[in-house]
Amino acid sequence: MSIGIGNATMINLNWRDIQRNVQNNAIALLPLGVIEEHGPHLCLGTDIYTAELYCRRIAELLDAAGMKAVIAPPNYWGVCQSTGGYIGSFRIRRETAKSLLIDIIASLAEFGFKNVYGVNAHGDIDHNVVIVEAFREAAESLGINAGYAFRKEILHHYGMSGTEAYICPIETQLIEVSKSQYPDVHGGDIETATMKKYFPEFTDDKLADTLPPISLAEDQIMKWLLGGCTKQLSENGYLGSPSEYANVDVERNISDIAARITDSIIIHMKRNGIKTS
After folding, report:
1. Looking at the whole model, is its pTM more than 0.90?
2. What is the CATH number of the domain that holds 48?
């Protein structure tokens, strides 16, 4: 049984707990995602559950490195560009999502947190644009160290180099955690395996066993990501091979992702002249 969304975050702390974290120079980790369909076998909250899972592991690694971390309430009101046509995918406007995210970061700054890092588990293009813009504005206007942990290999698609003050690049994953020939673009084997292991009550693995693999050509994947025709590309709302979840090395994958994000945060803090121990 999982601990549920938000239960490892500030939601269950009182204001004095938050004050003590601030006084201990704790890093605030902000889980980011959306509420969207993830095929017929996974819950709508898959991305935000995953983001919080990452944050829990990152907090443990930071603590082991001598740095206190606290997890902010998950922000799941992001942008669903690619899957916005499906029932269950909330269509939050870019300007709304951006304003909300800036307000959340501003609140953390007002509490006294000097270092705020966004950890995202949703790959939507517009969603990432919103996060980048929000962290840039926060870093420039709030007088804090605000950084978005962003995959290094796709930075150039967003016109960034990784040297921006508000970006901490995550190194590319070098290990193989899936044996499937079908990439897990959305709701495939890796996401299914992760949800089954850590949030089994929200995963229909028996249904996943029956789902055939869905694979698209590269140009069709871009059509999926850009949205507007996703139902025609995948009637059931997933891309990958959910039925192969048993062949995924989930623990190794989560540990590797958390370690790479943790490293990116520490490097980012040192780059910005912030003491890390």
Report:
1. yes
2. 3.40.50.10310
